[in-house]
Design goal:
It is a single chain. 39% of the residues lie in helices and 10% in strands. The chain contains two helices and two strands, in the order βαβα.
Length: 62
């Protein structure tokens, strides 16, 4: 599984369908069932992704 943002709101589909379904049910991505090879993050999904990125990959400021 992988997630790569390729613009501000889209991520390449690299997750299995069950995982994408759960993310959609939680309101974090738009409906993943389409012909594109990417999914669109919702406002909440983008906010949560940024929050998790900061928590996992940045150091707190002193």
């Amino acid at each position: 599984m992988w997630l790569t943002l390729h613009d501000e709101r889209r991520a390449w589909k690299g997750f299995d369908w069950e995982c994408l379904g759960r993310l959609h049910e939680k309101g974090l991505i738009a409906d993943p069932v389409n012909k594109t090879k990417s999914v669109v993050l919702t406002d909440e999904g983008l906010r949560r992704a940024e929050e998790l990125f900061r928590a996992m990959f940045t150091r707190p400021r002193p």
